[in-house]
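Input structure tokens:
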């Protein structure tokens, strides 16, 4: 089971998934797809906390 982990552990998790030791998550949170994903990318590009509040 994969829970909240530090970003620097992601390569290890990806390797364990590749080796079939861990399984990928059966569902994806809605904030990682569709309109939400576009908003997240816009915030990453040139955003700040105030732009997050306005969206």
């Amino acid at each position: 089971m994969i829970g909240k982990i530090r970003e620097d552990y992601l390569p290890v998790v990806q390797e364990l998934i590749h080796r079939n030791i861990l399984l990928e998550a059966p569902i994806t949170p809605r904030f990682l797809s569709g309109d939400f994903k576009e908003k997240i990318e816009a915030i990453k590009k040139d955003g700040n906390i105030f732009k997050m509040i306005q969206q």
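Residues 34-46 form the longest helix (13 residues). The radius of gyration is 15 Å.
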